[in-house]
Structures are given as structure tokens and as C-alpha cells.
Sequence to fold (267 residues):
Amino acid sequence: MVRRKRMYGGILLVIFVALMASGWMLADHRNAGGFWNGLHQVLDFPSEVLSEAWEKRANLPGIFWDHIPALIETVNIAAVATLVGALAAMGLSLLATRGLARWPRLIPVFRRTMDALRAIPEIVIALVLIFILGGGPVPAVIAIALHTGGALGKLFSEVAENADLKPVEGLASVGANWSQRMWLGVIPQVAPNWLSYALLRFEINVRASAILGFVGEGGIGHDLKLAMQWGQGRYDEVVAIFLLLFLTIVVIDQLSDHYRHKLVKGH
Fold:
């Protein structure tokens, strides 16, 4: 058995290496500029950006202040989308959880709905909504909320499957309806983990809302796109926006980690 496992492992390793090598060769062949020919220039653009930003470093505090409103818009997009998506995920997860679903025969329908929501990237949904609603923060909120509903719905459902059913049975025995059984018997058990996942998703959505700014959805990502399009002469603004976004994500990450720890561990 040991020799057989080693043989299978060796075969899989050879197949993996062969696939990786062939994939690199194919990608290099299809690259219009030639990957290996341009590899030595990969640091030219970042060094040009950083050198210009260093020369104009005195302007960075003022640029930070100028982009605070766009940053607030980005955080607002992420917060609203996370709230809407989390509320949708709560309903979908309870309807798709075995042993808790109100309509057990429709469990596959709700599960496939969540699969579809998280299978389509936010940027694809946003691009479609731009043609319908035009640019701005609203398409970004809808796009991120839909993807969040699918992603959190899956996680919420897995948490709900581990909930103790005795409180639910007790509530059913005294005549509680399905909504009352979920609200009083299940949600108090799963709320800490649900909030933990929602806070983690909020961090992800801040990054997503910044990325969607590149396709005209507003926020600090849109300012970053404009600064990069202007090119040389505006690289100090590019670096300032990157630093501002990075610091914001770090702060949100630290706060979310702190409150997740308090929710899950109880201290």
C-alpha cells in the first residue's frame, strides 16, 4: 500500500509539473509582448511612480484630505451592500438548511440560487447594471450585495446546520410558527458566528467597492483610475490614494478582528 501510494503521488506530481510547464509555455506564446522578454522591465513602472511620489511627498497630506469624501463613499457602498446582502443571506440560509427549511422540497432551489449569486463576479454584475442604471454607487451596491448574499448564505447555512434543534422542537410543541422558531430558537445560537462572517465580508467588500470604481461606480477607486490615466505628473496622487486605501483596510481589519474575537470568544 505504501509503494502504491508513493507511485500514485509520483504520477500526480509529474502530471502537475507537466501541466504547469505547458500552461506557462502556452501563456508566453499568446503574450503579444513576450513574457520573458519584458520580465526585466517589471519594476520600471513602480519605481517611476514611487520616485515621483517621493519628490512630491510634501503634497501627500493635502491629497489625503482631498480624497476623504471619496473614501467615505467607498466605505458606505461596502457597508450598505454588506447589510443588504447579509439580510438576504439570513433568509436564504434558513430556507436552504436541512432540518430547518420551511419548504424542504425547495432546498435545492435555494441552494442553487446561492450558488448562482456567488458564481458571478461583482464586476460582471456591475458592468451589466451600468447599461441599465448608469454609473454611480447604486449599481455597485446592488452588485456587491448580490454576491454577498450568495457567499454569506452558504456560510450561514453551514453554521445553522450545527444548531441544536431542541429549542426549535420545544417552540413547535407550544404552537410557534416557523418564523418564531427561527427567531427564538435558531438565531440566538448562530448570531455570534453570523456576525463574525458578516464583519469578515465587510472587509472584502471594501476592497470590492474600490475595484468597482475602475468601471465607473464612484468612490476612491474611480479617483485612482483617473489619476493613473493622467500618468506622469499625477503619480503622487496615485501613491496617496493607495496609502489611504491601505490604511483604511488595515483599520477596518483590526476593528473587525477585535469585535469578531469578542463575539465568538465572549471576551
Observations:
- The chain has a mean pLDDT of 85.
- The two ends are 48 Å apart (CA to CA).
- Residues 178-212 form the longest helix (35 residues).
